[in-house]
Amino acid sequence: MKGKILLLLVIAVAAFFAFNAFFSGGFDAGLAGLRELEQKNNAQEAFLVPITLKEISAYKNGLKSLKLRFGGNAAFSSLLDLKLSIALMQENLLNIGDNFSRADKANPDCSPDSGLFLAKSLSNETAQKADSVLIKRNAFLKNHPAEAALVREISQAKFEGAISSVKNGVEQIQKILLNYC
């Protein structure tokens, strides 16, 4: 009986370590994977995330894949959530421009499926995403200071300024859109 309990205990401990090794790799390993993903999708530090819709789509898929692999690490999971929020914000910005550019400004159509309506809706969502990005960033810095020090683009003071500028820009876009709808 004692032998069976000991064997079960050994198996449970081995399973625990195997699970952690596979699903919750260290922050450094996850960060290396993130940097590789960013390089592959042209997400240089100055841009924070990719700058085309195609690259953003691939980047978001890569973030989800990294989350599956390293999501057991709380700090890395928090960083991935932040990076995904930034990517979604950037995606919305590009879609706002696309919808607005295709809209007929001489004869504005404000129906729910029109470019102006979609741009207005996306601008509201983007302003909320900018707020969410700052909240997630501040939580990451507070809850994971050692890991945050390794992610310069997030920990630098100019990050907050960049996101605030995005929000201010979106607010200006919203004012322009109000002239049409």
Quick structural summary:
This protein is an all-alpha fold and 181 residues long.
Outline the structure in words.
- The protein contains eight helices and no strands.
- The model is unreliable at 4-24 (pLDDT under 50).
- It is mostly helical and 181 residues long.
- α2 packs antiparallel against α3, α3 (53-70) runs antiparallel to α4 (74-101) and α4 (74-101) runs antiparallel to α5.
Gap between N and C termini, in Å? 76 Å
Structural class: mainly alpha
Overall, the morphology is elongated
Low-confidence stretches: 4-24
Helix content: over 70%
What are the key terms here?
mainly alpha; elongated; 8 helices; 181 residues
Write the layout of secondary structure elements.
Elements: H1 2-23, H2 27-40, H3 53-70, H4 74-101, H5 115-143, H6 145-148, H7 152-155, H8 157-178
